[in-house]
Design brief:
There is one protein chain. This protein is an alpha+beta fold and 139 residues long. Helix content is 36%, strand content 19%. It has a 3-stranded mixed sheet, with no helix packed on it. The protein has a two-stranded antiparallel sheet with strand order 1-2. Strand 1 and strand 2 form a beta hairpin. Helix 2 crosses helix 4. The protein starts with a helix and ends with a helix. 14% of the residues are buried.
Length: 139
């Protein structure tokens, strides 16, 4: 546990960030989960034992972590921002019934040729979102 805490502190410092209790808590929370939570879900999780964080503090911490490249904002449904500590390239699967979100390895799909776009468009990055039913909902 202490080793993990030290690793988080070192990661934050290596990106030039001041280690505040709020940043530490938000980043540690995101690293411990794979469900791509919303701000509200992070807030609930962090405040379940002892209310210490506000929604504004969570937003501010996420923005700082995002700008430092430690967290990415994932927009998988209209009007809902979710957050992910996995900043390596990957795709997503979204279950249309239960809402579960799961990472898909980057190399699962053949490479998309961005140079095949019409003249005048210069693609820089892409991400595939697969929507369907997860195995829990199809059984």
């Amino acid at each position: 546990m202490q080793q993990q805490a030290n690793a988080i502190i070192q990661t934050l410092k290596s990106r030039g960030l001041r280690v505040t209790p709020q940043r530490f808590a938000v980043y540690a929370n995101l690293l411990s989960r794979a469900d791509h939570p919303t701000v509200e879900q992070i807030l609930t999780d962090l405040n379940k034992d002892f209310p210490v964080s506000s929604q504004a503090t969570i937003y501010s911490s996420l923005q700082t972590l995002r700008e430092a490249g430690l967290v990415r904002e994932v927009l998988l449904e209209e009007g809902v921002s979710r957050y992910d500590a996995n900043v390596k390239p990957h795709h997503h699967f979204c279950c249309r019934q239960c809402g579960a979100i799961e990472d898909i390895a980057w190399n699962t799909f053949q490479c998309v040729e961005l140079k095949s776009l019409r003249p005048g468009l210069r693609g820089e990055t892409y991400e595939v979102t697969v929507q369907g039913l997860c195995d829990r909902c199809t059984n």
